[in-house]
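Fold these two proteins, one after the other.
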Amino acid sequence: MSEYNYQYIKFFDDVRASDVGIVGGKNASLGELLSFGIPVPLGFAVTAKAFDYVLESNDILYDGVLITLKNYIQKQIEKISEELRKEDIKSIRTVDKICANIRTHIEQAKIPDSLADEILDAYHKLLDRIGEDTTFAIRSSATAEDLPDASFAGQQDTHLNISGDDAVLEYILRDMASVFTTRATAYRERAGFDHFDVKLSVGVQEMAGGLGGVKSSGVMFTEDPDSGNENVVVIRGTWGLGELIVQGVEKGDEFLVFKHAPKLRIISRSLVKKEKIMVFDTDKGGTITRPVKDERQMKYCLTDDQVLQLGKYAIKIRQHYGRRMDIEWALGNNDKIYIVQARPETVHSQKGDTEEIFYLLEDPTKLMDDGVAIQNTGTAIGRRIGYGKVKVIETINDAHLLEEGDILITEETNPDWTSYMQNLGGVITERGGPTCHAAIVSRELNIASIVGADNIVETVKQRIRDGDLVTITIDCSEGESRIWAKEVEYDYDTIEFANLPRTKTQVLVNLGIPKGALSAGKYPDGTGLARLEFIINDEIQIHPNALIDYEALLMRYDILLEQRKKVENIKKSELYYKDPFNEEIRKLKTTLDKIRDLTIGYDDKEEFYVDKLAEGIATIAAGVWKELPDGSISPCIVRLSDFKTNEYANLVGGWIYEADENNPMLGFRGASRYVSDDFQNAFILELRAIAKARSWGLINIVPMIPFCRTPEEAKNIEDIM
């Protein structure tokens, strides 16, 4: 316990999870993490009692009468409650003005001398304890924050890279004021919290990595945040400070860690281009955002060992708290990993085994054929459907134009948008990933959402200008981001899976999309058919033979270029007008360029195919993993590739290898393809992928051979396997 006898200060070492009423949820969690060996940067909390002290010791002239700042705020809260009861999005503008006035008064308040003395004494003692010059985060911590049944995440402010006596005192007041941001005030109203029952503690915490700065940072979830699947830890990160992920500026690299293997295994890696990085501003303090150097943009922000260490911390935290957790992490430039926040996850923990299953009542294939689809590159958040009048709102200043049931189209959202989102039909953002603000709030508010849909703002604006777009349907029901340019009929069922009867016959599900398996695989007894075609078509996109022959194709391209030069040197001959090389050269160049782009980070192109196939298979197998009543693990039956020639031809490089067939359904497919000299090496890559996924602990994977015509084919397949 602390040797210091402070009235308004608690060092993190002395704080536990039960101290939420004293130091707020965030600070209480940090102290709890330290108590069981989780690496947390050191710090102290300015208690909620200090918050009251500031409000009660400052006076303000109101209607000619001198009253305390606390009484003034109470009068303003009555006005806020009246406005928010109107359930009119436009009333938020009035609330904005009231909240801004409250914050200004708090920021201009004087910290009583006795409190300021304690804060600065604790600050200097913390510096002595750290033993070197460093820099701090000033972090708000509300007493109703990070509760199991309500998430106040992002509602108050955090300030980074702060140092010096005056700056620490200034930003503590700013944090105290942030309890009355519009977003936090509206959230408390909606969640049923009395505004004055929620008080603010402020944490003063060393920045992870100290003055050396942060190499990378991000978030992780002890379960999949979209589906609630308990079999994986999901980790996202980017270079520098993790605010850019929360803001939606960067999607971040994603890693899935499978929990149930004899030792933790990474079963999926998703690399994204990281163009911006937030770092310390060494000149002015605070932070700045700058471009990422070209050579780092397409490199993972974590090593495999660092991912696995984070996975271990996630599981340890999950076990200690006994509930699903949402965790923030940072990797210092000193290569030390720190956990900087851990709070209860509040969506799936409240849903339990109750799921809303949404489904279209119209044929999606016909909708596609009719041109109703708006193509997009976004990520589906959850599996909901929602429709409404489309509203393109490009800045928060115009958010008051939103009306109940609208579909918001915008570049990105941040916590300032929260109060405007609660009555919407859905949200589509141009930036962001599964852990950005729009995604988190959409899950919590149960609204349909797509994030990271490149260029969607301009696409929708053009459709509106053309006069053919008034309403939009957001369709995430299949785990993919589908946008329909009209109101599409849909329905949903609410199912309590815990109450469904257990049948003697196993209930198995057919799956193809790996991330979709984390949702669809939670309740069935296993996978009756997992199809590789979806993984190959969506994740790999390249004909396996083009990867096997990559070096040979490069040589062929060089030879064709040389031949073309010879032809061009005899322009006057007949050969000039009958040049046979140009078309193939163009097609081959396009193919090689696409392969190069899709396989960044892989010198060995065969390894790319094996890894991505193994990751997709493993994700499906992890999605359905569970112990069945008889003690066995639910099976994942994986059908090896069964593309037909015309489908293989559509892959990158497929034109080189696939012939035209009159009846592809009965042609060169399945087992007959596997044993052929033209495809056997590609088949072996599939077997290597199965073996790799099983080596990660997914021993429930069972391969299935499709379209086996004769016993001889079966015998040949067995010999190859």
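Now the second one:
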Amino acid sequence: MPTGSTADDVLVQLCHDLRLLREQAGGPSVRTVALQVGLGKSQMGAILNGTIRRPPEWHVVRGLVEAFYKYAHDRGREERLSIRSGLDEYWRPRYAMVEHAFSQSARARERRSRTVAQVDPGTVVPRQLPPAAPHFTGRSAELAALSRAADACGPLLITGMAGVGKTTLAVAWAHQAAHQFPDGQLYVNLRGFDPSGLAMTPAQAVRGLLEALAVPPRMFPPGFEAQVGLYRSLLSDRRLLVLLDNARDAEQVRALLPGSPSCRAVVTSRVELTGLVAADGAYPVALDVLPDLDARQMLAHRLGRDRVNDEPDAVDQLIALCGRLPMALAVVAARAATRLDFSLSAIAEEMDRGLGAFHLGDSSIDVRAVFSWSYRALSRPAARLFRLLGLHAGPGIGLGAAASLTGVSVSEVGPLLAELTRAHLIAESSPGRYGFHDLLRAYAIEMADVAETEHERDAARRRSLDHYLHTAYAAALLVSPQRTQILVEPVSAGVTLEHLTDRDEALRWFTTEGAVLLAAAEYAGKAGNDTHAWQLSWAVADFLELRGHFDDWIATQRLAVAAARRLANPEILARMLLLLGNACWRGGRYDDALPPLGDALEVFRGLGDLAWQARTENTLGGLMERQGRFAEALEYANRSLDLYRAAGDPEGQARAHNSIGWCHCQLGDYQQAVDHCRQGLDRYQEMNDRNGQAAAWDSLGYAHHGLHQYEQAVSCYEQALGLVRDKIGRAHAGTP
């Protein structure tokens, strides 16, 4: 039995077949046929349009088929019917398949319900809030407003210009209110205004939230809406706080809002998000720069009250130069705190020689001067690292990637990162992982353009891409050792690679670096590094499929196909087209899957590559199976078997025999199915392929059941179940 078909898929296909049968029969009146089978016209229309949620009763399907056959017979249109088999030969088995799919779906829903039940607030309590700012000052009116509004039902919305302290306020209030949410606090940085333009998608965000709620990726339901439904189910009847930071627009956050009134969401954004206020009842809190008194208190907390009181004019000048913007004040305070031998007036005078102003919304604040002043105080190696970090693709960076970017060792880059962290130019978000504020990243990019030559910038980006490509390639082979390997160019000098030892370590690395790898593939394509673009996409493909990140997989494979076209390498192009078709198929985008698979097959034929032609034919057959188009699937499977034989591929032959057998099952030819599935099983046993054996035994069980050979069917299913259980046991034991 093929994996992946959903109950909705097979029901829609049944409705499609009924609609096609009616059309080919000559289009009998919907009202007349509805009366014949005891339905209303609207119910009949829902069946034919495929908008029903549950399968109709068998007597309804039987009545419709008989009515359409009779109508065609009376009008001499029987030759126009694409399905002429009788009720028992075709329609009853098809209906049984729908029943089976829905029974499996019901079991899956039950398992999801058990998953929801197993995620007990007493056992999984996420505590994801970033640390509260140690010198948080002021904002008393805004804190009070948030606390009052928290008793309402809508999300809390904090808006304001970049660097005004939205996240700091949100995190401070969330820590104060944490006791009101004993079931935990979730945090997501949506990266809505990242200079790279790579904002987090709602689909990426909801998967991260599910993982934070301890849902294993294998338990994620397919499809974005279903995952949102599971997320909201897990939050139901719990008291949880969800902080959605740095949102680009209302659509980015709407699906992430809890559905339960016992939970509260806090959203921050640089834009007003009026749609969230109007449609979702968000309570807006708009932030401005700090009042003079609060700005002075902030410096006093960080520098000491005596030092601030001793030089009031210099403090006023510093506050004015920073435009009372909290982030600028924090950078100034960090610099001043490390130079106790400098007077504040000297620091203000040095700052006043800044470079100009960043323009933030409708205001112009001299932030560049603040950044420039801290930047010029760095050691030369740290300043270079700061500049090159601006060239890094993605939202965060680890030690090995930072070392590669600069071409130095991990032991050398560690102290430089610590220097940047002390200067508040970067932040250590978790042990050994670093990131910027958006404004600081933009400043770093500007400084790189000024201080680094084009050759130096290109070399740094090349080392960064090499770090991710070569580590991802090694990780991909640990995750899927059976993959057909690709040829990767030698690593550049100065690149530090991560040393991964096993599959679990590789999966953890992919999980940490996933967003960076997607960003790196996109950057490589845009920058003309086409080999890196398609190879990064290849390397991350199995991980994305394993985690169910189909939208990301499709997007990266489209990048890979575009890169392969530019390289004008037909073999690479065909393989990337095949991967793109697979991604669309696995992601449920059947109409999108067919064109790249057809193109891949055409290119492989032109190359005379029998093995890859066979794989592509087999994949096309799987796509047809998924859509219930079993006659077409059988044709593809037969062609793939011939090609696998010509290529001398026994594993492919086994796979093709099982696919042929399954198609015969669905077409009602159960004896042919037994013959082919048995041949597939024999080959799988010769190769000791336990996964293949389990699939073949399962198909054999289905075929024997169709032949009413129930004892044999039970025996086959028991064999399949034993192999699956053995596989699970081996996985838990850590043995191959």
